[in-house]
Amino acid sequence: MCADTREVEVAGAGSSVLALFANSLNAEVLRVHAEAPQRVSKLHGRIGWAAETTLRAAVATLVEAGALANAEGSFYAVEHRLTPAGEEMLFVAEVLEAWLAKAPGGPIAPNSKAARSAVKSLTEGWNSTLVPTLASRPHSLRELDDLIPEVDSPALARQLTKMRSSRQIDRPRGAGSTTPYEVTEWLRRAIAPLAAAARCERRHLRAETAPINGVEVEGAFLLTLPLVTLPATAGGSCVLAAHTGAAEPSGSRQDPLAGVTARVERGRVAACASDVGEQPETWALGTPEAWLEAVIDGNRETLRFGGAMPQLPLALAKGLHRELFGG
């Protein structure tokens, strides 16, 4: 019998930028450059815990990522400045560090081995669609193997072990092969750094990175909506969806939509399913970029709300911003 060689080749939205900060040195280099342009030879005086050769490698990585560029008009030819992309990447690093500080076992230092492991397992799980798949409901390894055919069983098992070790997923002790894995609240909140990184990619690295797809949109909603708490009087059902086709959707039914139908009871999301229906009674709609603005900055101007109870999806959008970014 031939060995199973299924592999993951495509990076999910946000994972390219987020992966930069598995190495906390990259964030420190950006912070120093945020103060003023820097020569590589002088960085060691500011970041003394890293060797100069390591610092040079970090700068080269950040230049390649578009976060740093040669300082125009600089007296020193090797002086670098922070670019607009680098400024936003620094915001991504700050959101990631805030997430690490909320780890179930206590705050994780950004420069620790535990932080590197947590970030790597998160990005790997997002790239393989393991995280979006678990967002819908708990699944056993056998079920996940059927649902994610692009990843071979041993690789999938390793991903699950890593995510469980970092407490992003959970499973009852002494569980058998059919016992399902489930997401933790900490993994639900990981959408914050993923969203910040995805927005950075859409703004500054559109040609080099993957667009936001329907699976990721659905997974993000499924993970985060259970975090939202509304007034106890809130109730009803609504659709939250995004156009995932053309960059400029026409608004017609032909534009592909991805999203969820959420049912709210007594202020809590009682059920959430990846189904938008053809004619929802109440809805919120926009591009993935519009949803990122709404969730990250609380800017809901480019989202459209409608139907019988438009205040319900509006309240959910506000709740997502509040829960993930403290708005």
Layout of strands and helices, then pairs:
Elements: H1 15-20, H2 24-35, E1 38-39, H3 40-46, H4 52-64, E2 68-70, E3 79-82, H5 84-100, H6 113-127, H7 130-136, H8 141-147, H9 153-165, E4 169-170, E5 182-183, H10 185-189, H11 191-204, H12 214-224, E6 236-243, E7 257-265, E8 268-273, E9 282-286, H13 288-297, E10 304-307, H14 311-325
Helix pairs in contact: 2-4, 2-5, 3-4, 5-11, 6-9, 7-12, 8-9, 11-13, 13-14
Can you characterise this structure?
The chain is an alpha+beta fold and 327 residues long. 46% of the residues lie in helices and 14% in strands. Among the domains are: 78 residues, Arc Repressor Mutant, subunit A (Orthogonal Bundle); 97 residues, 2-Layer Sandwich (Nonspecific Lipid-transfer Protein, Chain A), CATH 3.30.1050. A hairpin with a 2-residue loop joins β7 and β8.
Short description:
By secondary structure, the protein is α+β, with helices and mostly antiparallel strands.
- Fold-level CATH name of the domain at 229-325: Nonspecific Lipid-transfer Protein, Chain A
Count every beta strand, where a strand is a DSSP E run of 2 or more residues. 10
Radius of gyration of CA atoms, rounded to a whole number: 21 Å
Largest sheet: 5 strands, mixed
**Between the first and last Cα atoms, what is the distance in angstroms?**
55 Å
Q: Total number of helical segments?
A: 14
Integer average pLDDT: 89
Structural class designation:
alpha+beta
CATH architecture of the domain at 229-325: 2-Layer Sandwich
Write out the strand line-up for the largest beta sheet, numbering strands in chain order: 8-7-6-9-10
* Sequence stretches where pLDDT stays below 50 over 5 or more residues: 1-8, 247-253
Order of helices and strands: HHEHHEEHHHHHEEHHHEEEEHEH
Would you state the CATH class of the domain at 229-325?
Alpha Beta
CATH homologous superfamily label of the domain at 229-325 = SCP2 sterol-binding domain
What fraction of residues sit in β-strands? Answer: 5-15%
Backbone shape = globular
